[in-house]
Amino acid sequence: MTTTDSPWLGDAVSLVEAFRSKDRSPIEELQASLAAIERSDLNAFSFLDPEGALERAKLADVSKPFGGVPLGIKELDAVNGWPYTEASVVFADRKATHTSVMVQRATELGGANHIGLCTASEFGGVNVTRTVLNGATHNPWMHGRTPGGSSGGSAAAVAGGLITIATGGDGGGSIRIPAGFTGLVGLKGTFGRIPRAPHTELGNLTVNTGVMARSIRDTARWFDVCNGHDSRDPLSLQRVDNWEAQLGTHTDSLRGKTVVLAPDWGGAVVSSAMWTQLEEYAKHLCTATGLRIITVNTSLPRIGAAWSISGMVEIHTQLADHWPACADVLTPEMRFGVEATFGKYGTEARAKIESRRAL
């Protein structure tokens, strides 16, 4: 097997450098990724566009930040003309009529080659990737274990050596949990840093979009390409430049600053082994950077319930007239959540969401 028979094992930045030096071509990388996906038993992809991806690879502009790099799209993100199922049987036949701003920026400004959709949990609602529509996605470190969720397919594809980078989204850990489960970089950026336009859903205001990556510099480059205000997302923030260029330049400014270590957020169940690891790594990081750890009570009353309710109300608005007839084809967690919240919050909350959208 030659080096071009298997996908690139480094990060996306180094892959672009290989394209520019002509040590590898976008077409070779695409073909290697598609072949690896075909051989894989991870169930990381729910849809592939090999013909379209090949045409894009032929025209790849490798001078762009991610020029020619195969990109996986989390199936909760929209790509015009592709399936837009939200990982639910309810929308199994739906096609997207728009492309999300993040995907548009990554492909048009960044030059990435979107090759297919990565599996996710239904509506992004739970932290495992197992759905009625697609079945279970597996962790590349141990088959039969979950890669986490909701961006589990993206994590499995990147950590499993199929592609170097994939989109993700995070409301309650949907980037961070899969990154932790599979050994990737998973940054949940500041809310609104990357727009959720053009169809901004305002029901759950904890959701950010981002990336599953193999390196910090890949993540920084992604934010360089994708961040910045979009008028169709009123909560999106103004652009901030030089994410990648400033890596490693703020070390001195951190010295003496304080940081809170909160492994359980004041109430979550954390195993003793994980707690010990978190404390050890936090102390190592703070020693290296000169940060000072302080203890703060981070408990918030019923934070889990409040977050879950806001998410389930939004899911109910998406189901709309499909509910309750669709109850039997939802994953158990989604069915339970919608049933539990609709009686108390359904009509009133839905009216508020619709009135907010109309502003």
UniProtKB/TrEMBL annotation:
Any Pfam family hit: Amidase
Name of the molecule in the record: Amidase domain-containing protein
InterPro entries: Amidase, Amidase_CS, Amidase_dom, AS_sf
The family this protein is said to belong to: Belongs to the amidase family.
Boundaries of every Amidase domain copy: 30-299
Protein species of origin: Acidimicrobiia bacterium BACL6 MAG-120924-bin43
GO MF: catalytic activity
Gene3D superfamilies registered for this protein in UniProt: Amidase signature (AS) domain
Transmembrane segments: none
